[in-house]
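Illustration: Sulfate exporter family transporter.
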Amino acid sequence: MKDNIAKILFVALFSASFFLPTVISLLAGILLAVTLGSPFKKFTKKISKYLLQLSVIGLGFGMNLHSAIEAGKDGMLFTIVSVIGVMCLGVLLGKAFRLSRNNSYLISSGTAICGGSAIAAIAPIIDAGDDETTLSMATVFTLNAAALLIFPAIGHLLGMSQEQFGTWAAIAIHDTSSVVGAGAAYGEEALKVATTVKLTRALWIIPMAVATTFIFRKKGKKISIPWFILIFIIAMLANTYFGIPEAISAGIVTCSKHALGATLFLIGCGISVQSIRNTGIRPFALGISLWIIISAATLAVTMLI
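Result:
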């Protein structure tokens, strides 16, 4: 009886996850896994990997190389320092919190670049398990939701200008949607600055993915080229140079976002109660620590500009 209920719920939630917000899809998968258990473990593990890669590729059609570089050139140095700094600090803190290498790297990537999208791109390259990917995603999404509420209030309290807030939000908030939301809540100019700087930051997915293939290369094993990242680059270049109609590129991006929601549901289904018990609050401790440090550091620098 329990198995039948789990199967019915799985099919219903999987179908709905294409249209739900990504964070809700992830939580739905986690709740199903820890209560009734995932009824199709082999299916979820295999399909989630390929669906994740397809989602990342599709998002490439929403990026224009020239626009991203031009829009964020003023904050380029700021972005470079913050990305490299967060990655190095995250790895060190991960060891202090006794987290697995994969967990530390995923949370650091999500914090340094663009939240769930970065984790989605990096996870297949490092062969991250469903538990590691799920906990990393949950950590980043939780902090994104908090930032969306907290950042505008802090900005008004400190009397930040529209430009200052936009820059701070783009660097210190992980996910693009939360950056856009916070910028829009603060003002029109803040939204424009936040979006453009965030675009440049998102481009770091490419060098990060390439570097990761070397960092996580196993001794005696050939380097596994992340083909889906190469196709992601081709998609971005096609959108930049081949004049793809906006309606088509926007449609592909929309479908990719829907597919990403379904992917996160499947990833959430792969988590186990035992893994949560073993890891505890350490992933959240790392994520919160990095978030506080990057937020405070970028706020201080932004206020001085």
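Reading the tokens back as a structure: The radius of gyration is 19 Å.
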